[in-house]
Amino acid sequence: MVYETFQTMLTQHLSQRLGPGCQLLVQPVPKNNGITLDGLCISQNGSSVTPAVYLNNYFEQYQDGMSMESIVEEIQQLYREDSALLHTDFSILNDFSKLKDKIVYKLVHTDANRELLKEIPSVPYLDLSVIFYLYLEENETGQLTALIHNFHLAAWNTTTEEIYQLAIYNTPICFPPDLKPMSQVMSDVLCQEMDLDELESVVEDLSRSQARSPLYVLTNSTGINGAGTILYPQVLSNFSQQLNQDLVILPSSIHEVLLVPYDKTISLDKLSDMVNQINQTEVSVEEQLSDHVYYYSRESDQVLILQDSACHAPC
Predict the structure, then answer these.
(1) Which residue of 146, 204, 214, 265 shows the fewest CB atoms closer than 10 Å?
(2) Using one digit for the tens of pLDDT, what is the confidence trace for 6-50?
């Protein structure tokens, strides 16, 4: 079955399930790094809120054997869980004074988002851009957010600089930093999958590996858009001073970065190759941040793109 036929069949089945009070419309939704997904927007009569379900992954699951009936039931359940949004008062979006503590930021790659950046306020940072969104609420089903566009600035009679300053203040409060050794992150994951005897042995191996090649994961308290924590005041400087070493920063994804204490035995070329390899094989295009390796200098309290440093490595 071709994708367009799948869309038509799915919307027909859902329309029958949801009844005449709901309208269904499939429309393209631009996402990070130039990716566009097909959002199935479901709206009720008289409501200006339209929860959207992305269909692309469902088509892949259908091709892998998931039945149309199961997909319809799952989307219907998601719609029920999101139906509380239909009763949310979104008039707050017109009152900038009530939004100032809800403006936060995230990092995206500049070149990969050229078209999107024409439509939204942003602040350049190395090869990245700081962009802004409203963090409206969070519940068991996820976060309710809204990307800030240029037309919002006009409606709110504000500027990019003002929302940037608000986001710099708000983001660390809404999403505190979370910095852990990689060994701890992996053991936390494995703890849910292994029995105690197996876990003890694996944790010992991880601890020895951490001692030989220290690696740390920096994200935020939610693990979503956590790469922006490299901009948090004092996070990199405090950690660098604690270790008494500069830091190499590997952009694992838009959600996290990896920190490596720098010493002259580190092969920076190999780390750069590793970042490229991970992006090509392990990270979806939508979640990629950059192919560059970054360097944090304690002396200058600055993050640099590695290739931009005077000798491609600290001298």
Answers:
(1) 265
(2) 999 999 998 888 888 788 888 888 899 999 999 988 877 655 556
CA-to-CA separations, 151 to 9, 124, 230, 306, in angstroms, rounded: 36, 20, 28, 36
Average pLDDT over residues 61-85: 84
Is-contact 216 182, C-beta < 8 A?
Answer: yes
Cut 0.85: pTM above it: no
> Over the chain, what HEC string results?
CCHHHHHHHHHHHHHHHHCCCEEEEEEEEECHHHCEEEEEEEEECCCCCCCEEECHHHHHHHHCCCCHHHHHHHHHHHHHHHHHHHHCCHHHHHCHHHCHHHEEEEEEECHHHHHHHCCCCEEEECCEEEEEEEEEEEECCEEEEEECCHHHHHHHCCCHHHHHHHHHHHHHHHCCEEEEEHHHHHHHHHCCCCCHHHHHHHHHHHHHHHHHCCCEEEEECCCCCHHHHHHCCCHHHHHHHHHCCCEEEEEEECCEEEEEECCCCCCHHHHHHHHHHHHHHCCCHHHCCCCCCEEEECCCCEEEEHHHCCCCCCC
